[in-house]
């Protein structure tokens, strides 16, 4: 379990207070709060709250929130990665807050925040957060229950609502990423035969049977998902302990999906084994099967959990190596290496706050899904920010600025007489941007990743400071800038969603900085296009200014020039000129765009054909 200094906890407390102030006065109808004081019966041998008990409370809170929105019984379909930041001691209070972030067709994403409260010092700090997917159960007549949409009210709710569609996309590609890592030989094959002191994986095997009784079930007589997770944590902890011969601490639980239900009277067969042991961490795989009397075993769930061992000074201990079993053991061993790589990608590309992510993350086919997620979600979060301040306006072209945590962002927007799907198609063609944007001298397509993601090299004129601080074009040889950009485009996932074209810098080994060009970086930029009325659309351009971008926008913000107006006017003229589709495009028509009334990404979570573009990794 990771521990932080008091200063970090105070910073977390301040951020939590800011969020509470933002949401004060707004009541989310799906919000469910649970507070539990940790008793000795909830704790482990260290007098700390057991993770299994915490998972039960998380699942219960999330289920109540989902059912409050659906108005009918719901079951847990999946849970995203959970990273436990702090332990909770006996006598402290666990505060859990769950609410529905977004409803799709028959499934919904529920966000859960877990914090700890010390009653004697009045301290509060975050423990973990989780995203669970719940699905509605069919009615007695077998009909599906179609969920009503969620209406976000606060800035935070709007951000979660927007990004929920991207998280859903990542979930659906999760298994394919591991298969691709293994099939393309991206994981180094480790030689374990030379490790003389390695522990045989067979010694870590655990098998346990649990009888599902009424206290383990919900009001629908199905076994609580949280209860199944708690039993799985128990056998995983035993397996990890057999390897390290110490009391391990559960650090993370990987994303997992419930494959089917179990009911009261079922026997749950739980098997666990250490898949791989790294220097300071252990991955344990757990499989849960259900059977009833003489019936066949049903695979209910599989999960992968990462443990660490801390010494008396809370420092990470070095762990013994593992010697896998032949065939299946070797497969699990290699897959554990792939999952470790994925955890690192998710931690440093997705989980970190936008300001903490390196600007030019190296692009690789194996981390493309997460870079695309970060690219789109960062733009959606920037667009959802409040407190944008109008700096200037000219002929209905408006320039807004936002200063947040020492970061300056700009937004330029105007309504154009072009349908949103057509404006999206035109602006997504980044190679055409030099025809209307003077800041783009050249834009060449490097690689078409898939239908939604592209890599470009963009060349822009550098600027130097002239009179009154106004930038003027650099003379030849003064250092023209170039950028390597990942462009990710998304169609709406529901009514009221905008089209999105997100841009961010990445680095490519095939395109290093070259002489005569200064390599610039873009942190977060792009367009959102929202259908308004009468085939018109609101086009908004965003840029979270990096040092290379500041000279282009500083004089506009100061009111010394109106470059933003001329550029956006040129963009509007470009859209107007190309408003009418060619004959071939009219044949395909806007049907290629997402049908807002039945968007493909709103397909069911419980089976289900999902019409998403597969990422070719």
UniProtKB/TrEMBL annotation:
Answer yes or no on keyword Cytoplasm.
Answer: yes
The catalytic activity of this protein is classed by the Enzyme Commission as 3.1.2.2
User: Which top EC class is given?
Assistant: hydrolase
The molecular function GO annotations come to: carboxylic ester hydrolase activity; lipid binding; long-chain fatty acyl-CoA hydrolase activity
Q: Which residues form the START domain?
A: 388-577
Protein localization: Cytoplasm; Mitochondrion matrix
Q: What is this protein called?
A: Acyl-coenzyme A thioesterase 11
Recorded source organism is Eleginops maclovinus (Patagonian blennie)
Q: What is the lineage of its organism?
A: Eukaryota, Metazoa, Chordata, Craniata, Vertebrata
């Amino acid at each position: 379990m990771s521990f932080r200094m008091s200063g970090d906890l105070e910073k977390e407390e301040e951020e939590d207070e800011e969020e509470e102030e933002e949401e004060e006065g707004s009541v989310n109808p799906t919000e469910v709060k649970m507070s539990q004081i940790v008793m000795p019966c909830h704790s482990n041998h260290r007098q700390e709250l057991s993770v299994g008990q915490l998972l039960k409370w998380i699942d219960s809170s999330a289920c109540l929130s989902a059912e409050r929105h659906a108005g009918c019984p719901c079951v847990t379909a999946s849970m995203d990665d959970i990273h436990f930041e702090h332990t909770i001691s006996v006598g402290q209070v666990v505060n859990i807050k769950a609410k529905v972030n977004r409803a799709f067709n028959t499934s919904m994403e529920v966000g859960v925040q877990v914090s700890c409260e010390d009653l004697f010092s009045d301290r509060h700090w975050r423990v973990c957060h989780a995203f669970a997917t719940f699905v509605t159960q069919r009615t007695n007549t077998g009909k599906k229950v179609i969920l009503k949409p969620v209406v976000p009210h606060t800035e935070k709710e709007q951000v979660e609502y927007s990004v929920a569609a991207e998280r859903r996309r990542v979930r659906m590609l999760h298994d394919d990423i591991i298969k691709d890592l293994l099939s393309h030989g991206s994981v180094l094959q480790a030689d374990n035969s030379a490790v003389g002191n390695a522990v045989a994986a067979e010694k870590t095997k655990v098998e346990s049977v649990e009888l599902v009784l009424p206290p383990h079930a919900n009001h629908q007589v199905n076994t609580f998902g949280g209860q199944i997770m708690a039993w799985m944590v128990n056998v995983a902890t035993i397996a990890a302990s057999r390897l390290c011969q110490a009391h391990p601490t559960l650090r993370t639980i990987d994303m997992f999906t419930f494959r089917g239900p179990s009911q009261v009277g079922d026997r749950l067969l739980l098997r666990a084994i250490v898949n791989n042991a790294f220097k300071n961490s252990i991955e344990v795989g757990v499989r849960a099967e259900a059977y009833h009397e003489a019936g066949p075993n049903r695979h209910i769930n599989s999960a992968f959990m990462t443990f660490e061992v801390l010494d008396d000074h809370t420092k990470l201990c070095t762990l013994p190596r593992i010697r896998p079993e032949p065939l299946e053991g070797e497969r699990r061993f290699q897959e554990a290496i792939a999952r470790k790589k994925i955890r690192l990608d998710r931690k440093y590309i997705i989980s970190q706050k936008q300001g903490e992510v390196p600007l030019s993350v190296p692009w690789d086919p194996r981390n493309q899904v997460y870079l695309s997620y970060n690219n789109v979600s960062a733009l959606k979060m920037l667009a959802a920010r409040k407190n944008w301040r109008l700096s200037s306006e000219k002929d209905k072209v408006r320039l807004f600025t936002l200063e947040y945590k020492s970061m300056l962002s700009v937004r330029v927007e105007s309504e154009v007489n072009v349908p949103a799907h057509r404006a999206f198609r035109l602006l997504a063609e980044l190679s055409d941007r030099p025809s209307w944007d003077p800041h783009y001298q050249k834009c060449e397509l490097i690689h078409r990743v898939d239908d939604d993601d592209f890599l470009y090299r963009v060349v822009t004129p550098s600027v130097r400071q002239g009179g009154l601080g106004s930038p003027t074009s650099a003379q030849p040889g003064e250092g023209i800038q170039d950028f390597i950009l990942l462009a990710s485009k998304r169609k709406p996932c529901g009514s009221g969603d905008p089209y999105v074209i997100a841009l961010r810098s990445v680095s490519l080994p095939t395109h290093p900085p070259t002489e005569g060009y200064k390599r610039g970086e873009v942190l977060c930029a792009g367009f959102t296009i929202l259908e308004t009325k009468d085939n018109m659309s609101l086009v908004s351009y965003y840029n979270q200014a990096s040092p290379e971008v500041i000279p282009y926008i500083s004089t506009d913000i100061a009111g010394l020039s109106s470059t933003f107006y001329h550029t956006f006017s040129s963009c509007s003229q470009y859209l107007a000129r190309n408003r009418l589709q060619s004959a071939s495009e009219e044949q395909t028509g806007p049907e290629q765009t997402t049908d807002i009334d039945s968007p493909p990404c709103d397909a069911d979570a419980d089976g289900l054909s999902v019409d998403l573009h597969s990422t070719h990794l």
